[in-house]
Amino acid sequence: MDLSAHSRLRNLLELLAGYGLVFAVIWTPMPAQRILYWLAVVCIVVFTILRRDTLHSLGLAPTGALRSSWIVAGALALAALAVVIAKLLGTLHRIPRADSFPLNFRMGGYVVWAFLQEFLLQIFVLTRLMRLLPRRSMAIAAAALLFAAAHIPNPVLVVLTLVWGFIACPLFLRYRNLYALGLAHGILGICVAMTVPNAMHHHMRVGLGYLRYHPRHYRIQRSRAPQTVSTQAWVMDDAAILLSDRQARP
Question: What is the C-alpha to C-alpha distance for residues 239 and 124, in angstroms, rounded to an integer?
């Protein structure tokens, strides 16, 4: 096997393993879900480290911050417009309260989660698809479709993440800045949680979490719920609980 074929095979296997584990997490009930979650984290981290990419290629270098700052400004403007429209339509609502964490902590936790999602989409998925597919446009389309597929069966998030994938991937390739994309992602995710009725997106859940959602069970802790996977927004307490020391313990 020549070097090019070996490289393509490696990218394909890494993509299948990483994305397959993420998909399994979304559709697996607790407690097996927690095991798969940490397996996916280890797998993705190890694959990324072994690549020995530069901070610039990972989108983590400070260069380009000013050039890409308009992305955050655009997200804020879009969120403000959505809030005004939601207020006129009567769908604007507060983020539901949670007993375990204050609202600002949960919102901060979600911004971190949004940044991690951008890392998965851009660094783990898109860059490998760029090496596997002959054209950049094909890689962007495939990455957007995979990102949207990870939000099935939530109809709101499938549509929004598909659109976001087609927007965010070209922006990453142009600016190589994950910070702007992560912050914009967080702003828009929080906006969706506040402006779209929970009855439509089931507290931003996907997979089994969407199917098993019931509004009366909102205050149940994640560790006790049968399934509480949320992505695009683990808004807001699920992300904070996941990031806490208590949840990190097996």
Answer: 21
